[in-house]
Amino acid sequence: MGEKLKKIAKNILDHIAIAVPEIEPVLEHYSNMFDAEITPPKVILEQGIRMAYVHFENIKIELIEPLNKKSPVAKFLERNPKGAMHHFCAVTTDAEASAKSVKDNEMRTLGEPGVGHHGQKMFFLHPSDTSNILVEIVESKK
Asked: Which domains does the chain have, with CATH numbers?
């Protein structure tokens, strides 16, 4: 299984996502603590979230806040009311081929690859197959 899994993603992380009950206080805290560039919060209706990035030189922190109680992030925050790491995101050169490789290795995805809010193809690995960590795979910008 190890050899095939190396082909799922490059050795690059795009971001670490943290679910939070409210974005603004965390953005302000991280901006002050790390002197990091931040993006203003953006509503992503399809996912039921508001999100913003904290930019570090080598990675981004994606803060996600649920828009309503139906959001999957709201359910996550019920179990983690103060917020917690939600997922990490690795980069691939081909989301379709990576998803096929996942399935060839008898692992599961949460749905088929689709286009995310950033315009890139992406999909999630089932947490039961990744030590209970949600992993996003995103296709690199071409």
From this structure: 2-139 (3.10.180.10)
Q: What is the DSSP letter of 45?
A: G
pLDDT in tens, 29-45: 998 899 889 999 999 99
> How do residues 106-132 score in pLDDT, each as one tens digit?
899 999 999 987 889 999 999 999 999
pTM of the prediction?
A: 0.87
Binning the chain into helix, strand and coil, the percentages to the nearest 5 are: 30, 35, 35
C-alpha to C-alpha distance for 119 and 7, rounded to whole angstroms: 22
Q: Which burial class, exposed, middle or buried, applies to 82 when counting CB atoms under 10 A from its CB (0-12, 13-18, 19+)?
A: exposed
Is residue 3 annotated as part of the catalytic site, yes or no?
no
Angle at 122 between CA 75 and CA 18, to 5 degrees: 40
Catalytic residue chosen out of the listed positions 62, 65, 136, 139: 136
Q: Closest Cα partner for 142 from 124, 119, 114, 125?
A: 119
Model pLDDT, residue 5: 52
Is the separation of the CB atoms in 126 and 110 below 8 Å? yes
Q: 3-state DSSP call for residue 64?
A: strand
